[in-house]
């Protein structure tokens, strides 16, 4: 369910007449996304194929028959391992963290292998170049080997288009060096179709290797091989994940915003920024297992819409500052600013209606004591936040899914893909590139090059 009651129709929010005033932009954006679906070409003529992801297993445009067969074998390969380490950064890390948190929960690695239904322990690396975390992970693998009385079997799932991205390549080199005497390692790569370090490594050593499809940017990649391989490694039904995405894709094809919730929400957020100067978007999922979803969405929003130039080459400095939070935790740290700080933000709430497990605890209010389900408290906290924000004239919107399943996660992720695509065309920017990221990378790699030259005598 998409609830926009606190984003539309008030004297402090977007108004119905605003939708009419921006009708030409909305109509143009709708037609452009329809064209994108048909041609697979983005604003600059480059491939943009994320609308085909819900159908990835039914076609060979994004995945080969050989890869489909290899996917079917991944689950058995996983059960042969003691540990899986997912190595990647950006979309190659954040989406898999979301899958893990939702499906496995925070105490997965403390369960027995039987309780994990034969699946291994799971860790993440390659999302920072902090040596402390990498060495601590290596120490943990060594402890596992001592506990088992043999070399631990470790699968390194390494996700990198080029194979040379600094954080993942650092992690793979560091871990293989640290664990060469204490772990039995298998490397599975997800990389470029034909070239790159990982592809060559897989070819030389007959290792499993999957492709990051052309036309699928990192932040849109979770429903591709990037996420599907990891999902199989932890026992997720990938067809359910894709079925959720397919449901949203087919429900959001209309060019009429009254019949297309993704187009409507994108239009409201666009108008909120353009007319009402909303400069920040707080993503606030309610529930511990959705915490990392906020980080994932922050990257999708920031990299996609934070652009200096529009498609005509004019400077526009478009975008909203993404802020990842979680309810109820951050109601005790950030809500004060949300409610009474600068009126330049909107809050995107996300909730799960039906919790798989619940517990009632004793509560006392106004000298009345009784048992209250914690799920009721969570829902009431969200509603309280919505109402308090509205009372202060602050915009918010609320997306709720019935259950916290992989089907619903696939639907939620794909819904935001579409919202971002529509808003990109509304703003006449390219939501599918990331030129700003390349700027810092050049400076970073130059610094490392100079260090190598200085310390190697070259």
What can you tell me about this protein's structure?
The structure is a single chain. By secondary structure, the protein is an alpha/beta fold. The protein contains 15 helices and 14 strands. The protein has a five-stranded mixed beta sheet with strand order 1-14-11-7-10, with helices on both faces. β12 and β13 form a beta hairpin. α3 (65-79) packs parallel to α8 and α4 (91-103) runs antiparallel to α11. The protein is globular, with a radius of gyration of 23 Å. The protein starts with a strand and ends with a helix.
SSE topology sketch:
Blueprint: E1 2-3, H1 16-21, H2 23-39, H3 65-79, E2 83-87, H4 91-103, E3 121-125, H5 131-148, E4 152-159, H6 166-179, E5 183-191, H7 197-205, E6 209-211, H8 225-233, H9 238-251, H10 261-274, E7 280-285, H11 291-305, E8 307-309, E9 315-318, E10 321-324, H12 335-340, E11 345-354, E12 360-365, E13 368-373, H13 374-391, E14 395-403, H14 406-426, H15 435-456
Relevant terms:
5-stranded mixed beta sheet, alpha/beta, globular, 15 helices, 458 residues, 5-stranded parallel beta sheet
Evaluate the radius of gyration. Answer: 23 Å
Average per-residue pLDDT, rounded, comes to: 94
Choose one word for the global shape. globular
Helix amount, in percent?
Answer: 40-55%
The total strand number stands at 14
């Amino acid at each position: 369910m998409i609830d926009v009651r606190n984003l539309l129709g008030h004297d402090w929010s977007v108004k119905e007449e605003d939708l009419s005033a921006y009708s030409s932009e909305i109509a143009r954006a709708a037609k452009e996304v329809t064209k994108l679906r048909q041609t697979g070409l983005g604003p600059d003529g480059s491939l943009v194929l994320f609308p085909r992801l819900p159908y990835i297993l039914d076609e060979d445009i994004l995945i080969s028959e050989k890869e489909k067969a290899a996917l079917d074998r991944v689950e058995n390969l996983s059960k042969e391992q003691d540990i899986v380490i997912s190595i990647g950064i950006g979309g190659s890390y954040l989406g898999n963290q979301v899958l893990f948190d939702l499906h496995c929960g925070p105490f997965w690695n403390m369960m027995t292998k039987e309780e994990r239904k034969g699946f291994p322990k799971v860790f993440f690396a390659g999302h920072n170049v902090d040596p402390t975390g990498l060495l601590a992970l290596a120490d943990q693998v060594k402890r596992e080997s001592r506990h088992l009385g043999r070399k631990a079997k470790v699968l390194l799932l390494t996700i990198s288009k080029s194979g040379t991205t600094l954080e993942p390549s650092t992690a793979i080199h560091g871990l293989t060096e640290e664990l060469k005497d204490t772990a039995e390692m298998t490397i599975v790569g997800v990389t470029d179709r034909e070239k790159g370090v990982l592809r060559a490594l897989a070819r030389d050593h007959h290792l499993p290797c999957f492709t990051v499809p052309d036309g699928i940017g990192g932040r849109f990649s979770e429903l591709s091989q990037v996420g599907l391989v990891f999902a199989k490694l932890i026992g997720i039904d990938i067809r359910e994940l894709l079925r959720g995405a397919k449901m949203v894709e087919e429900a959001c094809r209309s060019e009429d915003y009254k019949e297309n919730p993704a187009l409507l929400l994108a239009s409201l957020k666009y108008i909120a920024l353009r007319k009402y100067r909303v400069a920040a978007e707080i993503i606030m999922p309610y529930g511990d297992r959705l915490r990392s979803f906020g980080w994932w969405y922050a990257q999708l929003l920031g990299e996609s819409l934070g652009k200096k130039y529009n498609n005509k080459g004019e400077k526009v400095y478009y975008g909203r500052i993404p802020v990842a939070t979680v309810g109820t935790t951050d109601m005790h740290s950030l809500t004060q600013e949300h409610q009474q700080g600068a009126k330049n933000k909107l809050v995107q709430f996300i909730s799960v209606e039906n919790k798989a497990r619940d517990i009632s605890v004793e509560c006392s209010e106004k000298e009345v004591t009784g048992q209250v389900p914690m799920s009721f408290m969570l829902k009431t906290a969200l509603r309280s936040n919505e109402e308090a924000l509205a009372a202060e004239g602050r915009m918010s919107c609320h997306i709720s899914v019935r259950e916290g399943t992989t089907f619903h996660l696939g639907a939620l992720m794909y819904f935001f893909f579409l919202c971002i695509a529509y808003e990109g065309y509304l703003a006449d920017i390219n939501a599918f590139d990331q030129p700003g990221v390349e700027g810092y990378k050049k400076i970073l790699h130059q610094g490392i090059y100079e260090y190598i030259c200085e310390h190697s005598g070259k």
